[in-house]
Amino acid sequence: MKILVTGGAGYIGSHLCVALAEAGFQPVVLDDFSNSRPAVIDRLAAIIGAPTPVAIGDISDAAFLDRVFAEHEFAAVMHLAGVKSVAESCRLPLLYYQNNIGGTLSLCAAMQRAGIRRLLFSSSATVYGAAARSPVREDAPLSAANPYGRSKLMIERLLADLVAAEAAHLPVWRVAALRYFNPVGAHPSGLLGEDPLGTPNNLVPYIADVALGRRPHLNVYGNTYATRDGTGIRDYIHVMDLAEGHVAALRYLLRANDGGYFVWNLGTGRGSTVLEVVAAFVRSSGRSVPCVMAPMRPGDVAESCAHVGRAQAELGWRARRDLDEMMADVWRWRSANADGMR
Ligand code: NAD
Ligand code: UDP
């Protein structure tokens, strides 16, 4: 069964392709390599043991999408392509609305033309906004504080509208929004991992840079939060657990023909502080990670953790890998690929 993975050459998409292949599906990557490298495809082949078909192009290009849908018969589309930096979205809102929202509209229209109506979308815990109380449930109020978050929120709403509009007619759309918490980690082979360009914004890639001696220290953004050690708490989830959560959600969508719009949190339900993540990284790598206390980062919340009951009950899936395994896999990947795939 062929599954189209938009953004399939990216950090999460590449790990998802591995999980799909392990589960017996045939992933087909669609990517324009705007934030990934073609070398990913060779690495995927090395892990999977067979080549993964690739369609190189932009999801906003309708003619390109029609060619891809004419060439392959897909059971579903997993839509990960998009731009994802909060800071960049504040500088370049049009890019975010065009690529994320415009790209999703273009993809849905092409799926409609091709008669494919099963779609999984990469959403984010950012749609819960700053006021959410942890652990946050899927039915919590939604809000967003920046163009990136608003693009995810608007896409969720447009997908729900699409399902509702079609509900009276057959065949109907069956759509899932997957709200990721903090994906970290890498494939245990050390061949795939997160490969950010420039200075990382996120905690774990930054820690890895410090451990590699590329940056002198980690700035810990705030140590006076009302948490067990004063630093921010997040729900870090191993990228392979996240990928397997997608496969479970895909099976759920494939199980029935009636339409519906589904939302699942993908997290572990357990939070770790910044200092706990640093300690796990030091244990796994044997390297030192000097820390300097710095002011709170604007927009950060004290705690963000998933309520995972719905995904467990409906998908029969739960995250299995702990923080030490996440950090060990990051270190294996980064120490063998200090320059990523460049
Ligand atoms: P990534 O940048 O590594 O992967 C995205 C991929 O999409 C890249 O390979 C890029 O080249 C491709 N792409 C971007 N725009 C495209 C377009 N118009 N047409 C075709 N390809 C395009 O990012 P990621 O971390 O793997 O994230 C994947 C998805 O998950 C994104 O939608 C992101 O918003 C969402 N998400 C990520 C995180 C996270 O922490 N990484 C958290 C929550 C949600
Ligand atoms: N963080 C930090 N130093 C950094 C980057 C992040 O102390 O250089 C903290 C940040 O304040 C938050 C946690 O690490 O408490 C996770 O941040 P990240 O940017 O990885 O994820 P997000 O804030 O999007 O959940």
Please render the helix and strand layout as text.
Blueprint: E1 2-6, H1 11-22, E2 26-31, H2 39-48, E3 54-56, H3 62-71, E4 74-79, H4 86-91, H5 93-114, E5 118-124, H6 147-166, E6 174-180, E7 182-184, H7 203-211, E8 218-221, E9 233-234, E10 236-238, H8 239-254, E11 260-266, E12 272-273, H9 274-285, E13 291-294, E14 303-304, H10 309-315, H11 323-336
Parallel strand pairs: 1-2, 1-4, 2-3, 4-5, 5-6, 6-11, 7-10, 8-13, 9-14
Antiparallel strand pairs: 9-12
Helix pairs in contact: 1-2, 1-8, 3-5, 5-6, 7-9, 7-11, 9-11
Nicotinamide-adenine-dinucleotide (NAD) binds next to α1, α5 and β5.
Describe this structure in words.
This protein has about 350 residues and is an alpha/beta fold. It is built from eleven helices and 14 strands. The protein has helices at about 10-20, 40-50, 60-70, 85-90, 95-115, 145-165, 205-210, 240-255, 275-285, 310-315, 325-335; strands at about 1-5, 25-30, 55, 75-80, 120-125, 175-180, 180-185, 220, 235, 235-240, 260-265, 270-275, 290-295, 305. It is globular and about 55 Å long. About 45% of the residues are buried. Bound molecules: nicotinamide-adenine-dinucleotide and uridine-5'-diphosphate.
